Fold this sequence. Notes:
Layout: E1 4-8, H1 12-23, E2 27-31, H2 40-46, E3 50-52, H3 55-61, E4 64-67, E5 86-89, H4 95-98, H5 102-105, H6 111-118, E6 123-126, H7 133-138, E7 150-155, H8 158-171, E8 174-179, H9 196-199, H10 208-217, H11 225-233
Parallel strand pairs: 1-2, 1-4, 2-3, 4-5, 5-6, 7-8
Antiparallel strand pairs: 6-7
Amino acid sequence: MTQTIGFIGSGSIGGSLARLAVAAGLNVVMSNSRGPETLADLIAELGDRARAATPEEAAKAGDIVVATVPMSAYDKLPADALAEKTVIDTMNYYPERDGHIAELDSAEVTSSELLQRHLAGSRVVKTLHNMDWIRLYSRARPAGAPDRSALPVAGDDPAAKTEVTRLMDVLGYDAVDIGTLADSWRCEPGTPVYVWPYLGKLPEGITKEEAQRWFQEVPGEPVPADGVKELVDQAVRGPVGGSFAALPFWG
């Protein structure tokens, strides 16, 4: 059973997942590109179950490792230290932030397949990426709760998907297996299951400032497994990559 989660990237998504992990009784090893000393406040908040480290140290320490960095930095992840590890990919491709990546723009591969190519010795599983960081923390629920949400999971290694599904259950979410990493485009930015179903409908006629306040305060909506399956099935492959302009928390 997973006892320690390593985090490479400790921003909004990493911080939310670390909080859920600590609350569930797991240990976390946090890292970022700026050095362990920059994580002092987060470690103090997380408490005795958390420590700061370098990305290589976090990779080696984790029973499972969460890669949660901008897509532009995917090839900076320490492949050697992550060998034989199950790696959760929470990364989303936003060309406005990441620059254009030719293999992704052409739909030659999905972003998770590109990551798996870099981490050839690891078992990459795509999940925990299609909710915003606020609801990802606040909408976690115990198993069996009537308002528990589900999240899509994609991966090429069945055992790794099972391992990640068990962790998700501990963190507060059901999982819906949507296939391989090649199928993960069905839950990428711009698809029906990405962010908005868990937020709810944005009120009409509000200003950008009001939308940002709404985003901070709205409790969100539960999306059960059947709802995730329906939304994933509705996905149509179109232009690759997300747009921040489509999100209420941007700008």
